[in-house]
Amino acid sequence: xxxxxxxxGLTIGSTYALVAIGFTLIFGVLELINFAHxxxxxxxxxxxxxxxxxxxxxxxxxxxxSLALTGAxxxxxxHFALRRIRERRATKDAALISTIGIATVIDHSxxxxxxxETKSFPAVLNLGKITVGNTIISYMQILIFxxxxxxxxxxxxxxYKTRIGKAMRAVSQNMDAAKLMGINVNFVISFTFxxxxxxxxxxxxxxxxxxxxxxxxxxxxxxxxxxxxAVLGGIxxxxxxMLGGLIIGVVEALGASISSGYRDAIAFAVLIIVLxxxxxxxxxxxxxxxx
Amino acid sequence: xxxxxxxxxxxxxxxxLTVLALALLFPLVFPSQYSIRMATLCGMYIVLALSLNLIxxxxxxxxxxxxxxxxxxxxxxxxLATRFGLNFLFTFIAAAIVAGLAAFLLGLPTxxxxxxxxxxxxxxxxxxxxxVEMNWMGLTRGPLGILNIPxxxxxxxxxxxxxxxxxxIVALVVLTIKLVQNIVDSRVGKGLIAISEDEIAAEAMGxxxxxxxxxxxxxxxxxxxxxxxxxxxxxxxxxxxxFGTDQSISIFIMIIFGGLASIPGTIIGVIVLTLLPEVLRxxxxxxxxxxxxxxxxxxxxxxxxxxxxxxxxxxxxxxxGKKAGELK
Amino acid sequence: xxxxxxxxxVTQRFGGLVAVSNVSFQIFENExxxxxxxxxAGKTTLxxxxxxxxxxxxGKVMYDEGNIAGFRPHEITQSGLARTFQNIRLxxxxxxxxxxxxxxxxxxxxxxxxxxxxxxxxxxxxxxxTQKAEYYLRLVDLYEHRHSAAKNLPxxxxxxxEIARAxxxxxxxxxxxxxxxxxxxxxTAELMEFIGKLKALGYTILLIEHDMKLVMNICERIIVxxxxxxxxxxxxxxxxxxxxxIEAYLGKEA
Lengths: 291, 328, 254
Prior knowledge:
The complex is a heterotrimer.
Chain A: H1 2-30, H2 37-54, H3 59-87, H4 92-114, E1 119-120, E2 129-132, E3 135-138, H5 139-161, H6 163-173, H7 175-180, H8 185-211, E4 213-214, H9 218-233, H10 238-256, H11 263-277
Antiparallel strand pairs in A: 1-4, 2-3
Helix pairs in contact in A: 1-5, 1-6, 1-8, 1-9, 1-10, 2-3, 2-4, 2-8, 2-9, 3-4, 3-8, 5-6, 5-8, 6-8, 9-10, 9-11, 10-11
Chain B: H1 2-10, H2 12-29, H3 33-58, H4 66-84, H5 88-110, H6 115-135, H7 137-140, E1 153-154, E2 157-158, H8 162-185, H9 187-197, H10 199-204, H11 209-235, H12 245-258, H13 263-279, H14 287-301, H15 312-327
Antiparallel strand pairs in B: 1-2
Helix pairs in contact in B: 1-15, 2-8, 3-8, 3-11, 3-12, 3-13, 4-5, 4-6, 4-11, 5-11, 8-9, 9-11, 12-13
Chain C: E1 5-14, E2 17-27, E3 32-36, H1 43-50, E4 58-63, E5 66-67, H2 73-78, E6 81-83, H3 96-103, H4 112-117, H5 120-139, H6 155-167, E7 173-177, H7 185-200, E8 204-208, H8 212-218, E9 221-226, E10 229-234, H9 236-241, H10 243-250
Parallel strand pairs in C: 3-8, 3-9, 6-7, 7-8
Antiparallel strand pairs in C: 1-2, 1-4, 4-5, 9-10
Helix pairs in contact in C: 3-5, 3-6, 5-6
């Protein structure tokens, strides 16, 4: 039973981690809490499903187009709704409100076009399952976990080995200095939004396949939980977001077997307790005040 | 523009009294149930937004969990009124105390956290409180909510007509404005603003930062608790859906939209954002899409909010100073 | 004579980095002491230790005969030390007058109750505090600008306002972190005159400064830092000739 919950927790936790990484990337470059991030997760799943239904069940093509659309939407969000606020050097609160506005627009547009009812997600990959002892592990779970791990590896490679990745890290260290070094800061930020949105769309689609259902409200809850995961791990630290996501997934799955009503509270309770004792998160660096 | 502002600043008292008179006359001019109800809810949100402004606007600590204290106050009042039949003097004060106590217990260990960490903690706290309200059936009746909460009554006089509630909330709003204004204008308020500007410098000036943050967080929560008690007894029914994170976020939007650390800004922000969905009602389901677009547009055009960066007290002092200089 | 401030074998480590290493010195009432040294020598770290921003890894900070090492910054200000910052840290959106009023925080008493009920005590205190703040602003020639936002002042005036704000906490010891940085020659000359005036008013002053002319002219004693260590201290004439100091500034070859 315990092992079973652990497996379930790791599966869902790895999707939290993917979303949390997006949070962390955006937070890293802009110090902005992106309240629309959960909406991209939801809209990514919707795009995949709707395109697949429209194209007669071609999952792979639908998935690819969905990622492209969600990524483009993310980059557009930065370009149209955030760039100007940033250039005016306004407070972070203004940008945060703008992301809430974007979330509202996306969520209600989806409601408007696709309706509020839960949509069933056809089982596109019927992979079967294996049984180890009395623990059941589906190949879908393994696939989700593997995809998450591969994406994390890929992202680490991009950040540390490619030109654009280095530019992203430079911008997150010091935006003004990066600008002076000739980095096209606005492009880098939009690219970051694109990457984060694509990751969210992948996670959303996988969760849709896993539960075989998607709904409009799925974004808000995961948005908050992955925000919690990012903060738990130490916001703006990439491995921290991964660790935070996995921990929250596992703790939630274990807690749910004790009390299902409080399932959604567990992530936050853990988070508050951790922050009280380690104010910069699990892997966050404690930095001395610069005076 | 500056001259208009200076003129407004010089006639602050006159303008305040005019606004108050208009508020008092409002139900006589618009006597429909609907308009009085909207105005009453506006008043309640003004109390909530002003109280959030104390911690987030003046002290610079982003709290995304204000609805938790609103809910704690509402449940405290509802439970005391329905089970123990206590009168409203007692339920209101108890609501403020319980909400303040919750803020104290949450704030003491967490208010040392920096910006986004605090935002996350308060958001999480709000979600936890909502789930407790949802699951602790014995105390809150969970999703069924608490029904038949009696209206406030004291010494044989009961507030039950909509117009009576309206005047009651106007009185609460006036008291809240006075309270916030007095705190902000004092030595304590300067300490709070100093914290929002630069914590290191504020500490170097001898301000005990954590103590001040906890203190203002408690006051802010107690006021929200007060508003919660009002809400419970006004609606006569409450359930956990009114106190979720979405509610916290709407209150937060109101103070940013109006302009942080501005009392008139907050009032205007609340009124605009409360009435906006009503005005857009004709658009049916599209209204929330439009609402979102308006938020984005507002932040693009005026990121500091409607009356952000405008401090009438300072404008008045500067204008008076200039005048004194001219006389010399 | 007993020292006002006694630094006793203070060491500050950040992880593996030793920012200040086994430093001891004393300051006596009404002295003007200059701290000099190359960038990164540990001068500002020393200020941060004295004012409570860092707790020293080892050693004592004796002020007025009590050890204040590890006290919180607000407690240290309360006990009579005040500072300015290398990168000006004014409350930018507050007015000039309000900045000084915040500086008086430890010397005023109105509490939340007074504030909410606007008691007579609060009003009396506010009036007195404003008058006192205006006195400090006159000292630094900023009275005329008292209602402007601090951020609208020119750079040199911002430095002066920071000093006025620090004076408002009625300290015995003033710590000035590069007060002349960014000032032109005339402003620096005025500042030197002003610091002389502060001494006449009875303040004890510890200042970090790169402007050698200023340091050599007004400081009675100079403390030299290099790589976290105190390498020399003494009167300006002595310091000028000290080989270790010349070496630290010009490198070995010179």
